Amino acid sequence: MTSAITAATANADLAALIRTIPDFPKPGIQFRDITTLLLDAKGFQASIERLAAAAPDGIDLIAGIEARGFIFSSALAAHMGKGLVLIRKDGKLPGATIGVDYTLEYGTDRVVMHEDACVPGQRVLLVDDLIATGGTALAAVRLLRQAGAEVIGAHFVIDLPDLGGADRLRAEGVAVTTLVAFEGD
C-alpha cells in the first residue's frame, strides 16, 4: 500500500469518510479532515487494522507525532501491544528531552521527545495522520535516529503526493505506507 494508486483503490471506503474543507486554514488549501473518519467507529477501526496489517515485523515501539498523529499512533500501539513514543513540539514534555530543529516555509520549528523514550537499536514505526511536505515527519525520523533507534517505516492515513513528503522520507531510507491519497494540496 505504498503507492497512491494502490492506496486509493484498496481504501476507497476510508477515503469516502474523510471530509474536504476548502480554503482552510487559508485560501487555496483543501484541508483533509479526519474527524469525520474518527466519528465512524467502523471506519476508524478499519484504518487501525489496515495500518497494523501493513506493519513490518519486529516493531518494538510506535512513535506518534503531535497532535492528530497521537490518535492513530495510540490506537495502533494498543492494537499491536506496543509501547508509544510521543514526539511533541518543544516545551510540551516534562523532564529531560532531546530535539531536532527543522525548517518551515517561513521560519523554523522543533520537535522533541524524552531522552529515555527509546534505547539504541529499538525498531520504531513512525505514525501520523497525514504526510504533506514531510518536514515534521523527516524531523521525527532524525530525532528517533539521534536517539539510536532504527526507523523501520512510517505509516500515514492520508498522503498528499503532490507535496512530495512521502518521497522525501523514502529518499532518507524510510519505507512509507499510506491508506489513502488525495491529489493537490
UniProtKB/TrEMBL annotation:
Pathway: Purine metabolism; AMP biosynthesis via salvage pathway; AMP from adenine: step 1/1
Subcellular location: Cytoplasm
Gene3D superfamilies noted in UniProt: 3.40.50.2020
Highest taxon of the lineage: Bacteria
Keywords: Cytoplasm, Glycosyltransferase, Purine salvage, Transferase
UniProt-recorded Gene Ontology molecular function terms: adenine phosphoribosyltransferase activity
Keyword Transferase: yes
Enzyme Commission identifier(s): 2.4.2.7
Residue spans crossing the bilayer: none
Catalyzed reactions: AMP + diphosphate = 5-phospho-alpha-D-ribose 1-diphosphate + adenine
Ranges for domain Phosphoribosyltransferase: 43-161
A matching Pfam family: Pribosyltran
Family statement drawn from the similarity comment of this UniProt entry: Belongs to the purine/pyrimidine phosphoribosyltransferase family.
Primary role: Catalyzes a salvage reaction resulting in the formation of AMP, that is energically less costly than de novo synthesis.
Subunit comment: Homodimer.
Protein name from the UniProt record: Adenine phosphoribosyltransferase
Organism annotation: Sphingomonas abietis
Lineage of origin: Bacteria, Pseudomonadati, Pseudomonadota, Alphaproteobacteria, Sphingomonadales
Gene this chain is encoded by: apt
